[in-house]
Amino acid sequence: MRGYSVDLVTSDATARRLALLVLLAPWAMAVDGGALAEPERPWLDPALQCPEAGHAPDGCWMVERRRWPVAKRPLIVAAAEQGREAVTLEVELMSSDERTTLARSERLTVTSVGWLSGLSIDTARYDVVRHQRAFGVRVETTSGGSGFTTTTTTLVLLLPKADRLEPLLELVVMHEELPIREGSESSDTSTLEVLPGRGPGPHDLEVTTVERRGDEEPRTVRRLLRWTGDAYREAAPAR
After folding, report:
1. How many CB atoms lie within 10 A of CB 130?
2. Which end of the chain has fewer CB atoms surrounding its CB within 10 Å, N or C?
3. What are the φ and ψ backbone dihedral angles of 144, each rounded to 5 degrees?
4. CA atoms of 9 and 21, how far apart (whole Å)
């Protein structure tokens, strides 16, 4: 029996390979904990909202909210801040009535190039741990130069653990270069499949990447990623 498939527009055309950063996290899920101390939420200030288009100034915030389709349908709130050198991300999981913070992440620094241009919450079936589900937050950045506009999307997967949201991985899931006037487009498209597992730890991931470079024939690359105790690493070639 195969696992769940999740389509991703993906990969880092600069590095020409999938970039993974996985942080060790305990795997017990508990979204019914008590209320947490009220955090500061500067992203609620309308004056600090990033513009809908164009260059995002330092210190501005983008905010996204979405119901998570699991038991009791908690609310996911993600806020990304444009910094001078990087984008930072803060995420909260709230009760369905939006009155109680059940879990939240530490402030996370997202590897990025350019300015913050988009934010979304991904509630696909990321069942990477037995009987537990993670959710994703996608941070999009845009940059221009050398005749191209470059857009990159980074996916951060988080798993609720008691009153914390533990980051599982940071993955560049889209890198696209579009010519401003003349030139060839490049983009990579991948499918990530969570393979079924028997143990309590994170399941293997199979990644199929289709790389497109201008008028060249697309190139397909398959990778098997295996949890090694502290990170996902590329294993033997996938089937």
Report:
1. 14
2. N
3. -135, 150
4. 18
